Amino acid sequence: ILNVEQSPQSLHVQEGDSTNFTCSFPSSNFYALHWYRWETAKSPEALFVMTLNGDEKKKGRISATLNTKEGYSYLYIKGSQPEDSATYLCALLEMNKIIFGKGTRLHILP
Amino acid sequence: KAGVTQTPRYLIKTRGQQVTLSCSPISGHRSVSWYQQTPGQGLQFLFEYFSETQRNKGNFPGRFSGRQFSNSRSEMNVSTLELGDSALYLCASSLGQNQDTDTQYFGPGTRLTVL
How far is B74 from chain A, CA to nearest CA, in Å? Predict the structure, then answer.
């Protein structure tokens, strides 16, 4: 059974601090990994689509890396701001199946 | 460009009833995917429609069905509702050219409560 794990489940970070969290997945038959940000009372918003081992993507203060050989992706947030408070989801695409992790709930403390 | 819209936003039904949810994709998008979000299971893939055909399907019972119309609008139907069907149902649209790498744009969801 394909399983996508995200850690930690929840994270409290002081405003201005940088943070990162992990998405782990089985490394066989990898096709693509998606990262989403889901703010309360809003829709999930696509952040990155990652396909190649060693991929690094950046969008403002947020960046992500991918290691398909060892089966993980990191999401980094530099200089956290209150608007970064959200649940961050990763989703693995493998042979037309899409499996979401349970997410990392990020709380930014003022 | 207008985003993905879903109707209704909230719905209350009783066990045994059936329900139909609607999703209108972003103009030009030909793929619509449906997801179920529950606190225990997280976000789970139901099915994906492309050009009026179901292209992919998750592991849900046959009570969950869908269809897509020629204008790419999609409906999802759940028959013989159970208490466990209470969830947030999200749809997402994409261009549909590459199922693995297309960016998906999510709608606001329909919150279904089954009593």
Answer: 18
